[in-house]
Every structure is written in C-alpha cells, then in structure tokens.
Amino acid sequence: MKKTLSFILLFFCFFSFSQxxxxxxxxxxxxxxxxxSELYFIANTxxxxxxxxxxxxxxxxxxxxxxxxxxAILDQxxxxxxxxxxxxxxxxxxxxxRYAFIWKSSKIKLKxxxxxxxxxxxxxxxxxxxATFEIDKKSITLVNFHAITKSKQPETEIKYFKFLPQExxxxxxVFLGDFNCPQSHTVxxxxxxxxxxxxxxxxxxxxxxxxxxxxCLASEFDNVFYQPExxxxxxxxxxxxxxxxxSLKEARKISDHIPIWFEFSLN
Length: 267
Known about the structure:
Layout: H1 2-18, E1 20-30, H2 36-46, E2 51-58, H3 63-75, E3 81-85, E4 97-104, E5 109-116, E6 129-135, E7 138-146, H4 155-158, H5 164-167, E8 173-178, H6 189-193, E9 197-198, E10 207-212, E11 215-217, E12 222-226, E13 231-238, H7 248-251, E14 260-266
Parallel strand pairs: 1-2, 7-8
Antiparallel strand pairs: 1-14, 2-4, 3-4, 5-6, 6-7, 8-12, 9-12, 10-11, 13-14
C-alpha cells in the first residue's frame, strides 16, 4: 500500500512539474506611462504563469526599464524570474517596438541567445522575436509577434510564417502574440496544413471602447499556434482582467488587449 501511494505521489509530482503555462499579452504602449500600481496589477495577473511573452514594449527610453521593474515586482512574490528584451524592431520608426520574455528561472532555462527574425525583417514590419527554452530537458522555441494593424493588412506579413518551420527545421516553433487577424483567416492555412493548431477559436481578445450589456470584447486577434505531435495541449484560455475595473476606460490604461494563456507539456 505504501509503495503504491509513493508511486502515485511520484507520478503526480512529475506530471505537475512537466506542465508549463505560458501567457501572451499585448501590453499596449508598455513603458514609462505605466504607473507603479499598474505594474503591480500586471504582476499579480501574470504571477501564476511560467513564461510571459509581451508585445508592444516601447522602443525608446522607458520600455526596457518597465520590463526590469515588472520583473523586480514578480521577484518579490516568491519565485525567481529572469527576462530578455529584444532590440527595437526594424520597421518604420513610428511603429518600432520591442518584445520581451519573462520566465521563472527555477523551472525554465533559456537556451542560447534570443533573436529577432533576420531573413524576413524587410517583409515583416515588426519581425518576430525568438527564444528557445529548456523544460525538463526538452526544448521549445517561442516566436513572439505583433503584426501590423488590421487596416494595413497583417496577412501580407503573416504569409511569411509558412517559411519559418523550414528556416528552423530543428526547432519546435510555437507562434504566439497579437496577429491582428483571426485564426480563421486563410493566411493561416499553410501552417495548419503543416499540422499547426490554434489554442483559441472564435474567441475575441481585444477590448471595445465601451461595453454593450456584458459584451466588452471586440476582435479575435491574439492566439497561439502549436504542433500537437510535439506539444500536448492541456488547457488554454483568456484572462478577463477588465472585469476587475469599474469601467473599460480604467481597464484600458493597462491594455486594450486581454492576456491569453496556454498550458502544455512537451512530447
């Protein structure tokens, strides 16, 4: 009986350790405009996840400093965190941004350097930001992305994503971020034919200017695309953080996007 109980406990310890939770969030204009109380709110929202992918970090002064401050606040909450920030993207200057990854360093290890996509940096305005993480001696490469706005036709950039698995054949690529485009768009068909699936379907992830009744969400823009043969989907969803505020105007000071999350294990 004791042996059986020990085996069960060992199994559950191993199984829970092998699960990883990644969160992706477009934190609109993330930089010196975020107050300390807003940074604490963001930290409390993301604290229970293992890897955080952030889009729309300010390229100029204030963006990198805000990520460092956010990480310091997370460190106060019981786990040790580390972070990496991209160089500014190479697109037109008024839309240049940085990306960031923040992760629990006790559970997750960064392998090698992070990098901005080089081959398609002319075709993609805010070229994606790559980071390879080691989890339980297995690797996953997160591709953090923020597409051009819907009015500028983000599908003209996303179409190049079909070449990335060929460009990095030895990496387990997972695409995540703000695509400014729903997963149902035909531009994602080449990835789907390669076996990629999205964690969200028919799920809006941006905030309206005003709620109509309980309807506060506007567009299906944020998502995660993964390969089921390499990554086992355990759970996924959104965080409706705006419901903690008295008005959408207050919530939108944090962001005009809600966070999305993906719990997985590596096959």
